[in-house]
Amino acid sequence: MMELLHKIWVVITTVAKILTQSRFSLIIVLLTVFSLEFVGQIKDILVGLNYPESRMQVVFFVLAVNWLAFQSWGWARYIYNRTQAVDGGKRGEPGYQRFLIDWLPRAYAIAAFVAAYRAAIHAQIDNIAYGIIAVGALVLIFLVYRRDIAEKFAAVLGKVSGNSMLYFTLAVMAVSTVYAIWSPVSFGGLLGAGAVVFLGLGSIIPAGTLLVSAARENRFPVVGFMLVLAIVFSWTNDNHRVRVIEGEKSHTDSLTLQESLDAWLTQRDPTKPMVLVATAGGGLRASYWTAVIMGRFQDQIPGFNKQVFAVSGVSGGSVGAVFYNAALANDEECVDSASEKPCFESKLLDSIGQDYLAATVTSMLYGDLIQRFLPVPVFSDRAAALEESWEAGFARIYPNADCGLENSFTSFFVADACGKQQWLPRLLINGTYEESGRRLLTTSFKVEPTTFLDTHDFYELNDQSALRASTAALNSARFSYVSPAGTFGKEINDDFVPVGHVIDGGYFENYGANTLSNLIDWLKQHSSNPPNENPFSGGLIVIAISNDSTIPLQQYDILAVPASAKPQAFLNEVLAPISGLANTRAGHGMLAYKQLAQYSEQLKSVLVGAENNAGASGDSDVAVDMMHFYLASNSEQPPPLGWILSEQSKENMRAQITEKHNCSGYLDILDRFRDREGNATAKYEQQSIGTDPCTR
Question: 276 and 210 in one domain?
């Protein structure tokens, strides 16, 4: 028995030794497979290949998959040949060793194709998936019979030396690294997210394998040393500082919420309801869904934005709100010259629905990765790359914009914003202060603790430094690890002194409901004012926008009993605190949503009482409604969470505003904007929904 156990142990240690020798190929391949299978923001990298303009990106993707396959195979072969640790060809040696040495590198190569195939299936691009399998099969045949092929074509292949392949590899790595660091937006936009991931991961293997080889020969633990170096340098090389506009201040400390309300009151229609919006987080799907709702009503109801006082956004919802405001600032009433139909929504969606993942993963795999091993900050980070990609994407659709996302966030809210006299809803961008765990608001006025309880003011903590609109949006959307925590602080004696880090607003509360409840409570004090000073003179509509289709619609009912969850069984003794903390995020958000709904119901009696006290006669016209727009999943695969959307997902979201579960709220809002004689003030109403299934 002991002899058998000894033999098993020898086999295990031998296999482990063989795997360890090619560990960089193994680690990168496993990382690729794991990320594309389980990491939500990475597994969607191929959905952009469905875009009509992405044909060249399909070619780049196939080339990049081959790059990763051949790098993982070739460098595993290199390390086995160089170390000569085990020679299964010697008489008396177990044959499985030679089998492993021959087939492990081939398995690494094929794993790259399997990962690409799975990603293509997930993205529902079957033709590319089958093409990947076909190419993978050809590569496997080549790897198995490469010696026979080399002999047959010796006259040609004899001119290609091992050094030539090494120089080619180093040249590709050098050119791609320089280009990716210099302009991650351009690099990612050219290749696409899928090609960037496979090219970037494949480029890590040569450097890592050469380091391992040198360490083995010099008996120096280079990998451990590099890890220690990265840990030590993390104290001094932080390149995640929140971007600011150098030399410009926001001066939000001198602006008040009351001034914003006064400005809104002077331009709104007092006979029409005030509109307040809470929009939840959820990556680009939240941004796009928010834009569908706001854009549709902007097209349906002339001057809709003039009735919207504020939008409280979280994560992707904040991004959608910032894009909406930027579109308003440049193209408030868009009408297509050919069809004479409204086009505000379509242009807004075109600006949001682009590939914003490619630039982010480019920076992550190149500049940000290299930065971890440098003692001081040198390269800009992936957060800046994402912000710049938003700026470029918006400019692509609005090329003549007076105010783009690269402009100061607060400049959108001055009286003559972008050279136009118009109202832009005030944005309450919800982030989380990592070190305190509290809400961190980025907005255009001073955040008073009497209104927003226990809340930090980002501008106050960041020295009143001006932020670009894109940066303000990301303050709410830094969901790890695709977007890093942002460092903010103050300049003291020309030195930057960190104060803390901003992370995704969803860590605190993912619906923006708490902030909107605080705002409504503040507005309530004006409910007894004369009509021209009463924000609720035409009533109130609260629009709540959610996008998580994994939560059943019934759970949003105020009195719904929370659904039971599957018990945690595996390692619960260890994982219970982590699991509990993670799941309270969703629980806090749902509670905040229901409290907002309950508060909205209670508010009507308060407003009716205030109106009666003010001397109103007859039946009260005050109406308070909360309309929930829910994003359902029309397939087994819910809309993705990352920074890229498939055409199918976008089409699904555009249709859902008038589907059964949203139809009533949609039509109720249109009804609330009819005049007192019942005439529709939505001038495009019939053209937009004449044949739509959304009917009463």
Answer: no
